[in-house]
Write a structure and sequence with these properties.
alpha+beta, Wheat Germ Agglutinin (Isolectin 2), domain 1, 6 helices, about 20% helix, elongated
Length: about 210
């Protein structure tokens, strides 16, 4: 019990002096001051501090505040700190700011099928749609298909399957459960067309007739 009280006292004293420890090389143990974000019930950090993806409030360093490592009050495209005075008291927020989304904004989705980044911003680059993305996510490096493409139902080139996640491929992960188009789950057990392309099988005949 004495040890617990001592630890709580140390945490409180540290939280009143964010970033104490001197210099830029303070390290995680010196930067961490409070619990925030999803790990802290959606709570923002005090004094405009960044909330890292690990749920810690921290001095504004790139290891905590860049888009890939941050949940809220993050450094954004204009290199300025995005701060908020909104607190979580159990009452629903009345409105969601423009271009904000995700768990810190009532689970709001972005308009126009844009991605919601790890820090709750709407956009369409890898910073938004890659690692840590919350909704409407994709990897822009890969060819996209289906409703994920954001411009109607788009089929894959070369008769490849469009997976449930919006990627093109020829394996069961793409062509079976949830496949959106050019689907042929039993492709490996099918017989190739006479003298034909090994990528097309008898199961593809209905598709060929539709496009004829």
């Amino acid at each position: 019990m004495v040890l617990f009280c001592l630890m709580m006292s140390l945490l409180i004293s540290t939280s009143t002096l964010p970033g104490s420890g001197g210099g830029d090389g303070g390290g995680v143990a010196q930067d961490v001051v409070l619990v925030c974000g999803a790990e802290g019930g959606g709570a923002p950090c005090p004094d405009g501090l960044c909330c890292s993806k690990w749920g810690h409030c921290a001095v504004n360093t790139s290891s905590y505040c860049n888009l890939e490592n941050c949940q809220s009050q993050c450094d954004h495209d204009d290199d300025t700190l995005i701060s908020t005075t909104t607190t979580t008291t159990g009452d629903a927020l009345q409105s969601v700011p423009a271009n904000r989304c995700g768990r810190l904004f009532q689970g709001a989705l972005c308009s126009d099928d844009r991605c919601c980044s790890s820090s709750g911003w709407c956009g369409q680059s890898y910073s938004y749609c890659g690692g840590g993305c919350q909704s409407n996510c994709y990897d822009p490096v890969k060819y996209q298909c289906g409703w994920h493409a954001g411009r109607g139902v788009v089929k894959c080139r070369d008769n490849r399957c469009c997976s449930r996640w919006g990627f093109c491929g020829d394996t069961s992960e793409y062509c079976c459960d949830g496949c959106q188009s050019n689907c042929r789950c039993n492709k490996k057990n099918s017989t190739p067309l006479n003298g034909g392309d090994h990528n097309r099988t008898l199961i593809d005949l209905p598709l060929l007739l539709e496009t004829a």
